[in-house]
Write a structure and sequence with these properties.
six-stranded mixed β-barrel, Rossmann fold, alpha/beta, Assimilatory nitrate reductase catalytic subunit, single chain, Phosphorylase Kinase, domain 1, seven-stranded mixed sheet, Dimethylsulfoxide Reductase, domain 2
């Protein structure tokens, strides 16, 4: 295994050890995880490693997965039902909470109709939870007003798949990336967002001649090992792939036999994309040079096995569906689908985005890949569920859903396992909607999120490690997520809470005893009026999504279920039998043919203008996940990119008066936020980039969702997260500083911190760090310090120096020899090394030398100054890596790993190490 070794407990304290194979709750790779719980005299100790038997990762985990054990504590949990909004919240019993929900729902139905109720759920739900809530809403409440945060990441791919193939199908598997000759990564920083799959691609590249292309407006870590980077202008993917379609057609690279036998609509697609027939036109639209376009087009044309992976950069767009179909068009034209190492591949962002699609989790879908507005399918599902009311028309999609809440069309909403006040575009609109909504229910594991404060009923859900069920990853692989921890206090499974409300409303059909019962019903519905491929002609409702072989699993077989790809037509189906679909050219449309989609390249909605001349792109960073409610608990995951930031090109920084490391305001016509400037050549002029993760619990003003363009794709309803017109300004403050307080003392200082004009909170191993800024004059700082550091009784020892002329103030608080707090206010260049200060909180006692160094704000020796952390696993900083590269003339990342261990565990930092090696080589040449 390639995981950090765990310190073994002394055998005398060890009482019991239990190991459980489960699945990671983060990205769509769906890695297998082995969790070990040691019951000792000192309490429980949980360690996490990769499952070497799981075919998605074979023992590998990224840095987030490796640190899962840091995120399962109960400190931030909701542990009992709560009633009333935040200011007046009181504990309640489950019976009281369930009755309140059922009574309000019935009142809404009676007074306003069934469509006055809505649900907003999540790809964090297990398939069994997803199935029950979908059954309840669409089959019993009789409304389709249930949507999911998966709308924000992959609904454009879903719509594109259905248009092209007739069904929402990812036809290939991860192993295809190991057998292909060319990988095209489109709109995906795979190295950071799907690290384990990226490492599989990189390993294949080491072993043979694999050509890697990255299509991305930014030069990301994924580009470090690419053979070709295409720095496309935001929103111009259709032009790029329409140009490829034209090139392939005009230069004799079409698979005419495949096209004639298995497709329709090519002539229209070619006619619609005629404006991209000249490569010079494509270059003008995309901002990519003719030379690079020629290289890409020729390589795609002359390589028989090509895998095109696309993700959020394609999907999260007002043209997301068309972008995805422009990719599928090129694969259909060349017959590069259904073959080993050849396919378009949609990579999902969440662990169970595909499981949600299987059960109809989106507002425009029915369960089991059946069509919501198809009367035959409606009847099929209603008969199977024996339901009193079946939804017959699509409900509100995510963005429209919260507009309907704000306008009063929706009177009651139940939000499950997601944080829309942070994650949705125009996020303050979501806040307004929830503020005035008559009745809000939230099911979550976290007591304090930006969304839970609006809950009239807050329900304690089970978290990862506590709940039982299945998830489906991006390669159609169903895996068990198993419990290895006891259910804490009053927390319950989401399916259980839904079932209780359903029963209270008088509905039958929810007598599930466990997740096994639910899975069997889900599997049986998938096989209802369905068949395998050989019997397709006898089945008018044929779907590839079919779990017929799993419909009679015993409880033991379900508990022991190994990862399996669907379709599962028979219980004896050999492993790998469905690793790639469409090999026979049988697609899911009624005529079994795939469809070319005619697409016109257009510019993004809401173009830049004089008032908002820059384009904001948003995305994820390596070590954080969604809105940080889970990963934000881990000190190890807060070291790589600790603060909310905005990446900007040096010339734009100069133009707008922004300095590297200083604060800036990002503003659109929807909202604004304040971030730390990161000046970088990795982004093009005219563009800025900001991560999505920070929320109001960890930063004063960093919810980038407030700023984001709320326009959506007309077909999928997926929002435009990649193209928001903005302006930036320097953010004025009189002073900036860094404040550390030992864990356990945070609440004493929290209100004082939050009174400053800007702050952000970072968890370290023993202390909480706050970066702060304020507009009070430096001469007022002494008074402000007393507010910020309220350690005034005689048990605390104070050290303080101040130089008002130099605008420097250092304060240190100790108690019984332990470091309790430290505050440094100084010009940015004179603020202390953050990791060094954090390390002193780990010491049992401070020596006189340490005290002097703390007061001075710098270590007595700078030899151990690591600089910004690169390798979170082994705590190796940028400065040490650069020094090692230069001193040992290193030319390969493996040499860095051999010297420093960096990159030797999860591999997430390897692209960054490659970038440092290139930078050192460039510097040496110059």
């Amino acid at each position: 295994m390639n995981n950090i070794p765990v310190v073994e407990l002394e055998s005398s304290t060890e009482l019991l050890t239990k190991t459980t194979n489960t699945t990671c709750p983060y990205c769509g790779v769906g890695c297998g995880v082995t969790a070990t719980v040691q019951e000792t005299a000192l309490g429980q100790k949980v360690t996490v490693e990769g499952d070497i038997t799981h075919p998605s990762n074979y023992g590998k985990l990224c840095i987030k997965g490796s640190n899962l054990a840091d995120t399962i504590g109960l400190e931030s949990r909701v542990l009992e039902p709560m009633m009333g909004r935040k200011a007046n919240r009181q504990a309640a019993t489950w019976d009281t909470a369930i009755s309140s929900i059922a009574n309000k729902f019935q009142q809404c139905i009676d007074q306003y109709g069934r469509d006055s109720i809505a649900f907003y759920v999540s790809g964090q739900l297990l398939t069994e939870d997803y199935y029950v809530v979908n059954k309840f809403v669409k089959g019993y409440l009789g409304t389709a007003n249930i949507d999911t945060n998966s709308r924000l990441c992959m609904s454009s791919a879903v719509a594109a798949h259905k248009r092209a193939f007739g069904e929402d199908i990812v036809s290939a598997s991860y192993e295809d990336f190991e057998h292909t000759d060319m990988v095209v990564l489109v709109g995906s920083n795979t190295a950071w967002c799907h690290p384990v799959l990226y490492q599989r691609i990189m390993k294949a590249k080491e072993q043979r001649d694999l050509f890697v292309v990255v299509v991305d407006p930014r030069f990301t870590s994924t580009c470090e090992a690419a053979d070709l980077h295409l720095p496309i202008l935001p929103g111009q993917d259709v032009a790029l792939f329409n140009g490829l379609l034209q090139y392939l057609s005009k230069n004799g690279h079409a698979d005419q036999a495949f096209i004639a036998a298995h497709t329709q609509g090519l002539a229209q697609a070619l006619a619609q994309s005629e404006s991209e027939s000249l490569i010079e036109n494509v270059a003008t639209r995309t901002g990519i040079s003719v030379e690079k376009l020629q290289t890409f087009y020729e390589k795609f044309a002359n390589t028989s096995k090509v895998m095109t992976l696309f993700s959020m950069g394609v999907n999260q767009s007002s043209q997301g569906v068309n972008k995805a179909n422009s990719i599928t068009n090129c694969h259909l034209l060349t017959g590069k689908i259904g073959k080993l190492g050849a396919a378009p591949f949609s990579m999902t962002g969440q662990p169970n985005a595909m499981g949600g699609r299987e059960v109809g989790g989106l507002a425009n879908m029915l369960a089991a890949h059946l069509e919501l507005e198809n009367e035959t399918h409606q009847q099929l599902v209603q008969n199977f569920w024996h339901s009193p009311h079946i939804a017959k028309q699509a409900g509100f999609k995510a963005v429209d859903l919260f507009h309907a809440v704000e306008s009063g069309k929706i009177k009651a909403i139940w939000i499950m396992a997601t944080n829309p006040v942070v994650s949705l575009p125009d996020a303050d609109q979501v806040k307004r909607a929830l503020e005035q909504c008559e009745f809000v229910v939230v099911s979550d594991i976290c007591q304090e999120t930006d969304t839970t404060q609006y809950a009239d009923v807050l329900l304690p859900a089970l978290g990862w490690g506590e709940k039982e069920g299945t998830v489906t990853n991006s390669e159609r692989r169903i895996s068990r997520q198993r419990a290895f921890l006891a259910e804490p206090s009053e927390a319950k499974a989401d399916w259980w809470a839904i079932s209780q409300v359903a029963k209270k409303l008088g509905f039958d059909g929810f007598d599930f005893k466990n997740s096994h019962d639910i899975f069997l019903e889900h599997a049986r519905l998938s096989a209802q009026q369905n068949s395998d491929l050989e019997q397709r002609s006898e089945t008018p409702n044929f779907r590839y999504f079919n779990l017929n072989g799993l419909t009679d699993l015993t409880a033991t077989e379900y508990d022991e279920l190994k990862p399996v790809q669907w379709p599962v037509w028979t219980k004896q189906q050999p492993e790998g039998a469905v690793a790639r679909l469409y090999a026979t050219g049988q697609f899911s449309h009624a005529d079994a043919k795939a469809k070319f989609i005619a697409i016109t390249a257009i510019n993004p909605v809401n173009s830049v203008c004089k008032e908002f001349p820059l384009v904001l792109n948003t995305g994820r960073i390596r070590d954080q996940w969604h809105t940080m409610s889970r990963t934000g608990l881990s000190a190890n995951l807060s070291t790589h990119r600790a603060e909310p930031y905005c990446e900007i090109h040096p010339q734009d920084a100069l133009k707008y008066g922004v300095k590297d490391g200083e604060l800036l305001e990002v503003k659109s016509k929807w909202g604004n936020c304040v971030l730390r400037a990161t000046v970088s050549d990795d982004i093009r002029r005219g563009q800025v980039f900001a991560p999505i993760h920070w929320n109001d619990q960890v930063a004063s003003d960093a919810r980038i969702g407030k700023v984001v363009n709320p326009v959506v794709d007309a077909i999928s309803g997926e929002p435009e997260f990649k193209h928001t017109p903005v302006i930036i300004h320097p953010f004025y403050s009189q002073w900036q500083g860094v404040f550390y307080v030992r864990q356990g003392f945070e609440k004493i200082v929290q209100s004082s911190i939050e009174s400053t004009v800007w702050w952000t909170k970072i968890i370290t191993a023993k202390a909480t760090r706050y970066e702060v800024a304020d507009r009070k004059k430096f001469t007022q700082t002494t008074e402000h310090l007393k507010e910020l550091l309220p350690f005034q009784d005689e048990s605390f020892e104070w050290l303080n120096i101040e130089d008002q002329t130099a605008h420097i103030s250092h304060s240190v608080v100790l108690k019984d020899g332990h470091l309790i707090a430290s505050l440094y206010i100084a010009p940015k260049a004179l603020l202390p090394d953050r990791d060094w200060v954090a390390s002193l909180f780990k010491r049992e006692r401070l020596s006189a030398m340490h005290r002097k160094a703390l007061l001075a704000g710098q270590p007595m020796s700078m030899a151990n100054n690591e600089g910004p952390l690169v390798c979170s696993c082994f705590k190796v900083g940028k400065n040490r890596i650069i020094e090692t590269i230069k001193s040992k003339n290193i030319t390969d990342e493996k040499q860095v790993t051999a010297c420093l261990k960096a990159g030797g565990n999860c591999g997430s930092c390897l692209p960054e190490i490659r970038g440092l090696i290139k930078a050192c080589q460039t510097e040496a040449v110059e």
